[in-house]
Amino acid sequence: IPEFSNVGLTEKEAIAAGHNVTIGRAYYENITKATVSNNNTGMLKLVFDTDTFKLLGVHIIGATACEIIHIGQAVIAFGGDIHYFISNIMNYPTYAEAYRIAAFNGVNRVYKAGVKYKIGN
User: Are 19 and 40 in contact (CB under 8 A)?
Assistant: First the structure.
């Protein structure tokens, strides 16, 4: 049974609360630590508000999910946005790298949808 951990809102809860939601995903197969550990089945998902980039939820399934969820919890607690993961350095190679990959994935989704933004809005 894989580890599972989450904090904050699910995508469905965020939409019900009136947020315009975008998802950023990082698959473990794209994380160096998962590859070298031969444990590359898993995913980290960021749920964030498309207009403000505010982090609303984090959902992780896979190795070390319970050990890295606190990073997302801290960003939610201080009201941060997903730019935190882009602007700050994540240790490498660690599973925490998934936050940065998921943040870039989410920002790319917003950009491709035609929303203009600046890092640090």
Answer: no
Contact 41, 2 (CB under 8 A): yes
All residues at 6 or more sequence positions from 9 whose CB lies less than 8 Å from its CB, including other chains:
17, 19, 47, 56, 57
Q: Which CATH architecture has domain 4-112?
A: 2-Layer Sandwich (3.30)
Entry pTM: 0.92
Residue-wise pLDDT for 31-73, tens only, equals 999 999 999 999 999 999 999 999 999 999 999 999 999 999 9
DSSP state at residue 61: E
Instruction: Map out the domains of the chain as residue ranges.
Output: 4-112
- Say if CB 13 and CB 31 are below 8 A apart: no
Average pLDDT over residues 107-119: 77
For the sheet containing 4-8, what is the strand order? 4-8, 55-62, 42-49, 21-27
Task: With CA atoms as reference, report the closest residue to 33 among 90, 84, 82.
Answer: 90
Token pair for 72: 């997302």
